[in-house]
Specification:
Elements (H helix, E strand, L loop, with lengths): L3 H26 L7 H8 L9 H5 L17 H21 L14 H8 L17 H12 L2 H20 L2 H13 L2 E6 L14 E5 L4 E13 L7 E11 L9 E9 L5 E6 L9 E13 L10 H37 L1 E2 L2 E2 L4 H30 L6 H26 L9 H14 L4 H27 L6 H8 L23 H25 L7 H30 L4 H28 L6 H13 L14
Parallel strand pairs: 1-4
Antiparallel strand pairs: 2-3, 3-7, 4-5, 6-7, 8-9
């Protein structure tokens, strides 16, 4: 017989299961009633009030449990309509155009016309300007078919990101002049941000100075790695150019600033150079663009002069998320390819799929792809569901995780396929080249990890400032120090009160506990690093990378947990395996976070950081490898 406590526990779990499942059932079944259809459509068009940042609050030990329901911004009726509209796209990119059908280093000549017919230039352009008016979730779903062809997806990525930033920050004049053309493909847009050689003392070598007499800006410099979308011969080109500017009447370093210009390729002085020959994405048109005394009117400034950082935040938010979708498409292609290879191929008389090592490779790649997809649509859902969400860290985490795992998956593919993958033209060789290209294209992954850490630490510093001051001055705050010693929570056994298990399916309670412990460990590490280094934490890049890896892993755990809970509650196909997937993601994430936590708590003399710094200094001093040959005698 069951004891009384067990009976109450069983009743409690059953009630939770019914409550959580009814939440999803009610949200999806309301469209069954005709009288409610207009209410649902109207509610979907209105965004909810802003919420506190999700990922940034991980750094202070807080979790937004309500988001564990996974954002549902597309109702069932709209989802059916969207899936029907995506059928022509899927047919085109699987039958008419695919990575296998691409030949040489150029895209088909009729591709731009096909893209215009399919409406791919205007997916996210507002309906007021003859676009489809789709939000982030819908437009990302619509880009999934094209993500199967990396070169096409990479070309359209920047175009859509620029559309997003113009719609959010552009003037009415800029919207009326540009959005309709951008939506129908008569004007295509590219980001012109990066340069061959970074400026030593300034932000950029590309500069712009203001002429008061003519009220124009004179732009000079060059941009590299500009990805040009497929376009027809008569279509014009729009470049989003980031340039170094100086504030008037300011003589100190505070005068340095950046301004973002929208520059048409037809302007005098704009020269589009030859294509770059890159390691991957060979069919993409990646070029150098030169600006020589280009006179840009005041109306072509996006945002305000000298406030390029404000516009850049909005641009990067969209660009990083859409870049992640390109990586996800390539990762799925690689996983499907190696899965089929392992099913069809035998090794020493044994089918590869039956080998334990191969099974581990495939499962780890699947976990990574599942986490990528969950993070992308979690971030997109927050953008679509809430007004002005602070998701700059979430978008950075999504790109950071996606591109790192994409490269790992491509390397696993080489390991599974073997020497055959060395032959030029093999599918796996193309996959690896494209993965390496996406990994290095644009902003550095290393710098992105430091950005994630510093953005989170900045947020935590504003909330934990008083506590940190007390801990850094123990003699003046003995009571606070004594209370810290009396705390029962440790890195091995964290004590939490987050109650994540109350907001997911009861079967996922162990996974929710892994999430809670990981968030608690991240908060402990943030507290320790502030106490140990204070504001000098910005110079501790090794610690910043560890913090970034911890926070990114936690976000992957959170998104996967929320997605699997929703899938099981509404009864999606393979939902039982999604539960297993979420459990595996959370267990792996918990172990990774615990390892990084111990490295931070051990300090630089125990975790080997100090030794590595000493070796690096000697390496620089010797200008290269300095160890003597192992067979050398000392006479």
């Amino acid at each position: 017989m069951l004891r009384t406590t067990q009976v109450f526990s069983l009743i409690n779990k059953t009630a939770r299961r019914l409550a959580i499942c009814s939440r999803y059932a009610s949200s999806s079944s309301i469209t069954d009633a005709p009288e409610h259809e207009e209410q649902v459509a109207g509610a979907a068009s209105k965004k909810l009030p802003p919420r506190l940042p999700l990922a940034k609050n991980f750094f202070v030990g807080l979790v937004d449990n309500e988001l564990l329901a996974f954002p549902e911004v597309i109702n069932r009726e709209d989802m059916s309509r969207l899936q029907n509209e995506l059928l022509p796209l899927k047919n085109f990119f699987t039958e008419d155009l695919s990575n296998e059908t691409l030949s040489g280093e150029s895209l088909p000549k009729d591709l731009p016309e096909n893209l215009k017919t399919l409406g791919l230039y205007g997916l996210n352009v507002s309906k007021d300007f003859d676009g489809k008016g789709w939000g982030y979730c819908e437009s990302l779903m619509a880009t999934e078919p094209e993500s199967a062809v990396t070169d096409v997806a990479l070309g359209l990525l920047g175009h859509r990101a620029i559309v997003d930033v113009i719609q959010e920050l552009g003037t009415d004049e800029q919207k009326s002049q540009l959005l309709t053309k951008l939506g129908n493909g008569s004007l295509v847009a590219s980001e012109a941000i990066f340069e061959f050689d970074g400026a030593e003392d300034d932000f950029f070598n590309t500069t712009a100075h203001h002429e008061l007499d003519t009220h124009t800006w004179v732009l000079n410099g060059g941009k590299a790695f500009v990805i040009c979308p497929p376009k027809t011969s008569e279509a014009a080109h729009l470049f989003l150019v980031v340039a170094q500017t100086s504030k008037a009447n300011v003589k100190t370093e505070a005068a340095r600033a950046t301004t973002i210009f929208l520059v048409d390729s037809t302007m005098s002085g704009v020269k589009i150079g030859d294509r770059h020959s890159t390691i991957g994405c060979g069919a993409s048109s990646i070029r150098h663009v030169q600006f020589e005394n280009v006179r840009v009117p005041q109306s072509c400034i996006l945002g305000h002069a000298h406030e390029g950082n404000v516009v850049a935040d909005t641009l990067l938010k969209s660009s990083r998320l859409r870049n992640s979708m390109v990586g996800l498409g390539l990762a799925k292609n690689i996983l499907n390819e190696i899965s089929q290879e392992c099913i069809d191929r035998k090794l020493c008389g044994v089918v590869m799929k039956d080998l334990e090592s191969v099974q581990t490779h495939l499962a780890k790649s699947y976990l990574s792809v599942y986490s990528m997809e969950s993070m992308i649509y979690m971030t997109a859902g927050i953008l679509d569901e809430f007004n002005y969400p602070d998701i700059v860290v979430e978008s950075a985490m999504t790109k950071y995780f996606t591109l790192k795992e994409l490269l790992n998956i491509s390397i696993r593919a080489l390991d599974l396929i073997g020497p055959k993958s060395l032959i030029a033209g093999q599918t796996t060789e193309q996959f690896f080249r494209n993965a390496a290209h996406l990994y290095t294209q644009g902003e550095s992954i290393d710098n992105l990890s430091i950005f994630i850490a510093l953005a989170g630490l900045q947020h935590a510093g504003t909330l934990m400032g008083d506590t940190i001051r007390k801990q850094r001055n123990p003699l003046y705050n003995p009571g606070h120090i004594f209370s810290k010693f009396m705390e029962r929570s440790t890195i091995d056994s964290p004590v939490t009160k987050m109650d994540c298990k109350e907001h997911v399916h009861p079967t996922l309670e162990p996974a929710a506990l892994c999430l809670e412990h990981s968030v608690a460990r991240l908060q402990m590490c943030v507290d320790l690093l502030f106490t140990r280094y204070g504001s000098a934490i910005v110079e501790r890049h090794n610690e910043s990378r560890r913090i970034a890896d911890m926070a990114t892993t936690i976000y992957a755990m959170f998104a996967s947990l929320a997605r699997a809970s929703r899938s099981y509650c509404i009864g999606l196909q393979h939902a039982d395996h999604e539960m297993l997937t979420a459990m595996s993601v959370c267990v792996d994430g918990r172990d990774k976070v615990l390892t990084l936590t111990k490295e931070i708590f051990n300090g630089s003399y125990v975790n080997n950081d100090n030794n590595l710094q000493r070796l690096s200094k000697q390496l620089v001093k010797s200008k290269g490898y300095f160890a003597m040959h192992p067979l050398t005698y000392n006479f």
